Amino acid sequence: MEEENNKVTVYGMWISTYAKKVELALKIKGIAFDYVEENLTNKSCLLLKYNPIYKKVPVLLHRGKPVFESLVILEYIDETWKNEPRLLPQDPYERATVRIWATYCLQISDTIKKAFISAKDVKEGAFDEFFEKLKVMEEGMKDFFPGGRSKICADNLGLLDIIIVCSLSTYKAAEEVLGMKILDPEKNPFVYSWVTTLLELPLVKEILPPHDKVVSRLEFINQNGFTFQSNI
């Protein structure tokens, strides 16, 4: 009965980077969960019931109570399950700083998706805003991690690791579809090294969709157009 009362369910979509953040956070914390795949063109009654405001994924259902919005869910997970690793620092200033950069990183995620959808001709500068935001992130993370983000492993992942890797997890597929560099090791060495290291972790690989499946979806979007949804 206690196990049933503590049951955790995630409502997501296989290509949603926002839902993947929630899955990864639960994996890091060692929390068992059920996963429900949603079709966002034909949303289930349960999704509409549990997220009546935005009607989007992800939704975390815990003890029968829904929590939505990915950043809110990540903080809920960290506050509910206090075991290590903690996703947010205990120091109030560091905690606030992580929240600021987390919000900014989510903006980067939305920017790259909008750029991809509008990139009929990559020479028209569709990615200019994304590259500018990425440059700011690069410099900001050098200051935030003055010694570098070294010795990354499943036991020391935090909120920013989750958000940056899930936000940019499809960059290789996007590069393949568009035929252009999106994450450049020469222009953004810190972010590039950080993301590529995270993508090699078995825990991260577990929750990410197959590369070929992502390429196929992005090719479809690129050829047919797609209305931008911020929860994808």
Structure in words:
With 232 residues, the chain is an alpha+beta fold. Helix content is 54%, strand content 7%. Strands 2-1-3-4 form a 4-stranded mixed sheet, covered by helices on one side. α2 packs parallel to α4 and α8 crosses α11. The longest helix has 27 residues. It is globular. It starts with a helix and ends in an 8-residue tail after the last helix. The model has no long low-confidence stretch (mean pLDDT 91).
Structure keywords:
232 residues; alpha+beta; globular; 54% helix
Task: Quickly describe the structure.
With 232 residues, this protein is an alpha+beta fold.
* C-alpha end-to-end distance: 35 Å
Structural class: alpha+beta
Major sheet description: 4 strands, mixed
Overall 3D form: globular
Q: Helix tally?
A: 11
> What strand order characterises the main sheet?
2-1-3-4
Query: What's the Cα radius of gyration?
Result: 18 Å
Average predicted local confidence, pLDDT: 91
Q: Helix share of residues?
A: 40-55%
Question: From N to C, what is the helix and strand string?
Answer: HEHEHEEHHHHHHHH
Share of residues in strands: 5-15%
Number of strands: 4
Q: Poorly predicted ranges (pLDDT <50, ≥5 residues)?
A: none
How are the secondary structure elements laid out?
Blueprint lengths: L1 H4 L2 E5 L4 H13 L4 E4 L7 H6 L8 E4 L2 E4 L1 H11 L11 H27 L9 H17 L14 H9 L3 H8 L10 H11 L2 H6 L3 H14 L8
Parallel strand pairs: 1-2
Antiparallel strand pairs: 1-3, 3-4
